[in-house]
Amino acid sequence: MRVDIYRRAEHDGIFSYIAVPEGKNIPEEAISTDWQLETQATEIADDAKALPDYHIEQPLQQIADKGYAITSLKDM
Q1: How many CB atoms lie within 10 A of CB 39?
Q2: What is the per-residue pLDDT across 38-61, written as a single tens digit (0 to 9) for each?
């Protein structure tokens, strides 16, 4: 699966990330004017357990459940 990844500044130079299927909009419940495009068409392996560069756990499961995958706050 390919995704577009957006980031948003949190605090102390830390960013949170959201991954949405390539070409899709960020779903309404996660929309925020401060998301900025980080990268487009990033490939996620079918067996990916995490996207460590973005602190996103279970990206494919999150996308299946809610239409996007987001940084785990416990990693911040």
Answers
A1: 14
A2: 999 999 999 999 999 999 999 999
